[in-house]
Amino acid sequence: MWNAPNLINLFKQHEKLNLVLHSHNNHMLPGEVYNKLLQPHRMANYFFIFVDKGSTRHLVDMNEISVHEGQILFLLPHQIHVPPASKKANEYYKISFDDSCLKLLPKWYPFLINPFNSQVIDLDASARNRLRQSFVMLEELLLSSNKNNNTSLLIAWLHTIMTEVDQAYFNNPLKKDYTNNSLAQYIQFKQIVEQELTEQPSIDSIAKKLSISTNSLYALVKQYAGISPKEYFTNRIMLEAQRLLFYATTSAKELAFELGFSDPDYFSRLFKKHTGKSITLFLEEVQDLSGKNVN
């Protein structure tokens, strides 16, 4: 296993923005770098791939995800990723940027908290056309001779892309029944979990921060995630444990403490109960996976 280098620092296309965009017409990564990325690696930045024609498959957090024509896949920092090994005749746009670039944009985009746990977004024909045009404009600016003088324009087009993706994420008929207020509270719940993950806050304390009762929090999380708040928290911290094990050089005991467990034996039992595998077996399978690729 390996920690992916910050490729943006190596291949960024603008002196002030940590941003990389490449497409089927403009390949940025050398073959030896791409081959290295075929090993499981921890994402350092935000990554989006818009498939305009064709399809592709990626391994994300140990799950295979298919992305088809007219869809966009987004990956977040710290996720474990393996891109496809085969290079099909797809038409696509890929963009990657870091937190410093995100902070320059004029707003925060709620889809980044991924409230519906769906990292593939369907685009209708209009959104697909607009997104394609936005990528084309952004790519032209990044490839222009005076690209370093176009900072404000680049930020504007990146904001347009992010706004388009955010709108498409929530523009799903199956999600129309959720009220804005409950969705906002659920997003807040997810933010608290992310911010306080290793502190292992109680469900009561999270409910108090949201100014709702514990029963209301249970109903809220059950509505969106289909599980209880405690189950949600356990799933999330076990996912983080698996991510960390992909490149950890520390012992299981040290990892348990890092994740906020005071009892390493309890952590090991919980890991096995949740994944069906002991930590030792999981690490053995991780080593096997490093030689496998997604086709």
Descriptive account of the structure:
Helices cover 46% and strands 15% of the residues. The chain is an alpha+beta fold and 295 residues long. The chain has two domains: 7-175, Jelly Rolls, CATH 2.60.120; 180-289, Homeodomain-like (Arc Repressor Mutant, subunit A, Orthogonal Bundle), CATH 1.10.10.60. The relative contact order is 0.12.
Overall mean pLDDT: 85
**Strands ordered across the widest β-sheet:** 1-8-3-6-9
Q: Any low-confidence stretches, pLDDT <50, length ≥5?
A: 290-295
Q: N-to-C terminal Cα separation, in Å? A: 19 Å
CATH topology descriptor of the largest domain:
Jelly Rolls
What Rg is obtained from the alpha carbons, in whole angstroms?
20 Å
Q: Give a count of the beta strands, DSSP E runs of length 2 or more.
A: 9
CATH architecture of the largest domain: Sandwich
Instruction: Sum up the overall morphology in one term.
Output: globular
Oligomer: single chain
Summing up helix and strand content along with how strands pair, one would put the structural category as: alpha+beta
Describe the sheet with the most strands.
Answer: 5 strands, antiparallel
Classified by CATH, the class of the largest domain is Mainly Beta
In which range does the helix fraction lie?
40-55%
Binned strand content: 15-25%
Order of helices and strands: HEHEEEEEEEHEHHHHHHHHH
Total tally of structural domains = 2
